[in-house]
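User: My collaborator sent over this chain with a note saying "see what the structure looks like." That's all I know about it. Can you take a look?
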Amino acid sequence: MSKVFKKTSGNGHIALYLGKRDFVDNVDSVEVVDGVVKVDPSGLNGRNVFVYLACAFRYGSEDLDVIGLSFRRDIWIQRVQVYPPTGGNTTTSPMQESLMKKVGEQGHPFSFQIPPNLPCSVALQPGTNDSGKACGVDFEVKAYLANAADNANEVIEKKDTCRLMIRKIQFAPVNNKPGAKAEISKQFMMTDKPVHLEASLEKEIYYHGDPISVNVKINNETAKVVKKIKITVEQLTNVILYSSDTYTKAVCTEEFAETINANSTFEKSFKIKPMLSSNKDKHGIAVDGRLKDEDTNLASTTLSQGDKEMQGIIISYKVKVNLMVSGGGLLGGLTASDVTVELPLTLMSPKPAEVKLD
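Assistant: Without extra context I'll predict from the sequence alone. Here is the result:
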């Protein structure tokens, strides 16, 4: 195993071991979260050792919790007892066997199956003056000493716990399909013929950092002139907790000075590239969840089965193609108007090459 992630409790009696921190959601199932807890029985004082995996929505920094308000809401949580062993499932994965060799006889395996209808790890970019942890969805594995797995009256001290953050991530499907196509015919005041706009994407899925090809066809049958083509990529962040709220933010806007005269046609492919680096100062932009201060990118599109309601943060994108049409004749700019179509866009990361265990 190339790397082991380890966290030891403050009292030194328990230590949490994971072989990886990224767990892939394949839409219909999620990789099993498996690890090992090393337990020193001499310091337990009759208590048990439990592990939980929690998916939570974080509202803001924990250090703001000065009036007893919770800035964290658990969307899903599961707990297991690892010591003393309960005699449950004794099968171990290759990852756990490899960890057990490193940990020795004091190692006790655990595993969790994340349901597929949970959101992926995502954070909302804080403002320039914000401090502490960003709002968003995160996953935490925590080992702790307690008399009971979940007793609201039992105080668990920080020195009796150890935790590691993990990520639930999705990668782009291998099979890419042709992209979306949309068209509109719009008639203007004092004209009897329309402007026809058709826009399409070359493919359904684009990877972060790759240019997006937007094909534009225009048939201008009016006496007006198309002065400019504006293409925007919008990120839609649907926050589903007590209610459902959607926030829309432009993450890429390009204007192209193309002139399409009256009674003429036009066809061209434009390239745009939405990047997090161009949105560093925008508060509330959704980004893929990160561990510590590593680099990340714009949040990936959330893929779901569609039949189960998800909670947390759901991400989608759309491309808007907008024609700025100037008025002709005596009224000039008073009859100027826009023609707009929208296309759904899937923005994701490719699946990396498989890494084999030693």
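A starting point for your reply to your collaborator: The chain has one helix and 20 strands.
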